[in-house]
């Protein structure tokens, strides 16, 4: 009788355990990253060069050279940088 009871308990336990399934953990939800829209500044084309009259060099620096002016983009608009005399680099 004890043997039958043991076999019965083993059968019941085996039946209960047969239905157990080890499932993988659920996949994590997709990661959503907010990216603000890109701001693209459309830079207008550079304006035409401005013709500057070259003045004579300063009397205290007769060997300096003229560096002509040019356009510079300051992040918002084109700005003209005037020409000037600079020390000659050897």
TrEMBL record:
Top-level taxon: Bacteria
Protein name, entry field: YXWGXW repeat-containing protein
């Amino acid at each position: 009788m004890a043997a039958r009871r043991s076999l019965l308990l083993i059968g019941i336990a085996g039946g209960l355990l047969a239905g157990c399934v080890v499932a993988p953990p659920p996949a994590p939800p997709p990661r959503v990253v907010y990216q603000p829209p890109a701001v693209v500044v459309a830079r207008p084309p550079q304006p035409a060069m401005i013709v500057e009259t070259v003045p004579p060099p300063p009397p205290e620096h007769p060997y300096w050279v003229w560096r002509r002016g040019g356009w510079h983009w300051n992040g918002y608009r084109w700005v003209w940088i005037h020409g000037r005399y600079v020390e000659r680099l050897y």
